[in-house]
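haha ok so turns out i had the wrong file open the whole time. this is the CORRECT one, sorry everyone. sequence first:
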Amino acid sequence: MCSRFEIDATPGDIAERFGLAAPPPLPNAPEIRPTDMALIIDAPVIGNGEKPRLLSWGLAVEWDAKPLINARAETLSRKKTFRALLENRCLVPATAYFEWRKDGPARRKNRIGTKSRGVFAFAGLTDGDRFIIITCPPAADIASIHDRMPVILERRAEPLWIDRGTPFNEISGLLVPYGAEPLWAEEETPPPARQPDLFS
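then structure:
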C-alpha cells in the first residue's frame, strides 16, 4: 500500500521530464498525503499533448468514509469502482514514495525511489476530480519492506498508459513491479531511547 509520496522537483524539471509545453502547477509541499492536491498528467479528450493539473488524492466511495487511495492491479477490471475509470488513466509524477516496514511492534519509515533519483511516474486512474494510485507486488529490491508497491511505469510505457485510444486490456501488462533500474530505500533512524535521570 502506498499512503504517502513525494514530488521534490522544480516545475521546469517536470516539464522537461514529461515533455510538457509549460511548467506545471505543483502542490504546496513536496510530501503528499491522502486528500492532498497532487500533480497528475493525462491526455485531454480533445487536442494533442498531455494535460497537467492538480487533483485530490483519493476517490470518494459510498461504502467507506475514508477516501480510496490505492487500487490493486490484479483486480482492477473486476471491481465495479474501477471498471468505469479504466480508460481515464493518468500519470502521477513523483520522486519517491514512503512505506513502513514492520519491526516487531514498531513501524520503520522508508523513503523509496529509483537508482537515478530522478522524477518517475506512478500509474493512476482519475474520475476528473480525484485520482488513485495503482499498486502491484513489490520489486525484489524492496520486498523485505512491504508486500505491495505503487506501479512505477517504465518511461517507454508512459505514453501508452495515457493513450485514450488504447483499450485497458491491451496495456494491463504494464502494471508490473518496476524493473527498468534498481530501487533504493532509506530507512529513518529511530530516535534514541531516553535514559532515566539518575539524579532526579
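The helical segments are 11-18, 80-83, 158-161, 168-171.
again sry for the mixup
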